[in-house]
Every structure is written in C-alpha cells, then in structure tokens.
Specification:
Strand content: under 5%
Number of strands: 0
Distance between the termini: 76 Å
Largest sheet: none
Radius of gyration: 23 Å
Low-confidence stretches: 1-9
Helix content: over 70%
C-alpha cells in the first residue's frame, strides 16, 4: 500500500498507444504523425523528468510508423483523400496542394486528386463567391475585394478573373 501511495509519477502510455489514439481521432500523414509523436515524447520526458535520447526516440517512432503502415492503419494516400474531401468546398487546388506538400504527401500520390479538383475549380469557386457576395461588384474597390478573397482561398487567377468578370457556370 505504501508503494502505491509513494508513486508520484504517472505511467506514460506506450508510444504505440499514443499513436493509435491520435489515428483514432483523424487521419494523419506519416510526417505529421511523426511530428506529433516527437512532441508527445518530449512532453512525457519533461513531465517524468526522464532522460531519453532523441536518437532512440526517433528509432522507436519510425518502428511504430512502419508497423502501422504495414497493418494499413497509416496511409498517406488515405490522408490526402481525407484532406482534399475536407477542404475542397472552401479552398482551391493551389492551397490544397500546399497543404499536401506541407504534410509530406508524395506529389505523385496527390497529382490525381489535384487533377480532379482542377476540373471542378470554377464551380467550387463560383459557389463560394455566391455564398459570400452573390452579386457582381459595381466598383473597382469591391471587385478588388472579391478578387483578393477568392485568390486568398487558393483558386487560380484565371478562375477568379472569370467569376469577377461575371461569368457563371453553365
């Protein structure tokens, strides 16, 4: 009984358990899950005041990630599909491509998804514009404002120019 009451530090969950918990919440790319696990390891080491070498930690993280990929629990392709699906209504292909690159998704994997996005870029941009504004700008200041809005969402400049110019999807 005294051993239990004298125990001050909480037992940290295993690296595998933390990775599985993160993946149960949403899809991650290999790069982003590795970053989360490194952050988690550093936090647990600080809390428990334990010294763990970053090299050993990196090797164990890589082993967990390899295991998860072999089991099909971690997939950059599935992550890319989820990201595209989640962001396609509000953002253009350029912005989504930047997000995929930042997450470490291979450009060949994302090429097909981005090609599909570019096919519907005009319709998605028009819908976003019509929700926000709905009417064609009457003066230069308003046109510039609408143009900046769509460009900041990652839509192509040719698509933005068509929408601001008054073209509608057929």
């Amino acid at each position: 009984m005294t051993e239990v009451s004298n125990k001050k530090h909480k037992q940290s969950p295993s690296l595998k358990a933390r990775a599985l918990r993160l993946l149960s919440l949403r899809e991650y790319s290999r790069k982003s899950l590795a970053a989360k696990l490194v952050e988690s390891e550093a936090r647990w080491a600080k809390l428990t005041e334990a010294e763990s070498t970053s090299e050993a930690s990196a090797l164990s993280i890589e082993a967990v990630l390899d295991d998860f990929e072999a089991r099909g629990w971690l997939s950059d392709e599935r992550f890319a599909e989820a990201l595209v699906r989640r962001r396609s209504e509000r953002y253009g292909a350029r912005k989504i491509q930047e997000d995929l690159q930042r997450a470490g998704v291979d450009t060949q994997q994302s090429a097909k998804l981005l090609a599909d996005l570019r096919e519907t870029e005009f319709e998605r941009a028009y819908e976003l514009w019509s929700k926000k504004y709905g009417v064609k700008a009457q003066d230069q200041k308003e046109r510039a404002r609408q143009y900046r809005f769509l460009a900041s969402k990652g839509f192509g400049l040719d698509v933005v120019a068509k929408i601001i110019g008054g073209q509608t999807p057929d």
